[in-house]
């Protein structure tokens, strides 16, 4: 038989015995909302729901394709994208400059 007094961390501290004529103390619930493990489980469940909602609109095939690349290949892909973005930025600046010159001449 398991000795409850020897393992108070598992079962909590034992209640003192009731005196004669006194009513028994109310039974304590084993379900405690302040239990850190239960709170962690509730948070994990909520996080899973949030992640599921967010992942609904994510193209997982792109993630898988990116994860197949080595880190060096991913960096090269990123550098190529940044060169493309820089080209777009330069093209937009040139277009705005031309439009500004055209409106000044009129």
Number of strands: 0
User: Which value, in Å, is the CA radius of gyration?
Assistant: 33 Å
How many helices? The count is 4
Distance between termini?
99 Å
Note poorly predicted spans: none
Compact overview of the structure:
The chain is mostly helical and 106 residues long. The protein has helices spanning 8-11, 36-55, 60-68, 71-105. The longest helix has 35 residues, at 71-105.
Q: Which descriptors apply to this entry?
A:
106 residues, mainly alpha, elongated
Task: Describe this structure as you would to a colleague.
This protein is mainly alpha-helical and 106 residues long. 64% of the residues lie in helices and 0% in strands. The protein has four helices and no strands. The protein is elongated. It starts with 7 loop residues before the first helix and ends with a helix.
SSE layout and pairings?
Elements: H1 8-11, H2 36-55, H3 60-68, H4 71-105
């Amino acid at each position: 038989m398991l000795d409850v007094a020897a393992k108070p961390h598992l079962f909590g501290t034992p209640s003192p015995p009731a005196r004669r004529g006194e009513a028994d103390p109310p039974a304590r619930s084993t379900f405690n909302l302040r239990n850190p493990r239960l709170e962690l489980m509730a948070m994990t469940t909520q996080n899973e729901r949030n992640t599921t909602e967010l992942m609904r609109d994510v193209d997982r095939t792109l993630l898988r394709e990116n994860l197949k690349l080595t880190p060096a290949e991913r960096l090269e892909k990123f550098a190529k994208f940044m060169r493309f973005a820089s080209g777009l930025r330069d093209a937009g600046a040139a277009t705005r400059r031309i439009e500004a010159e055209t409106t000044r001449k009129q």
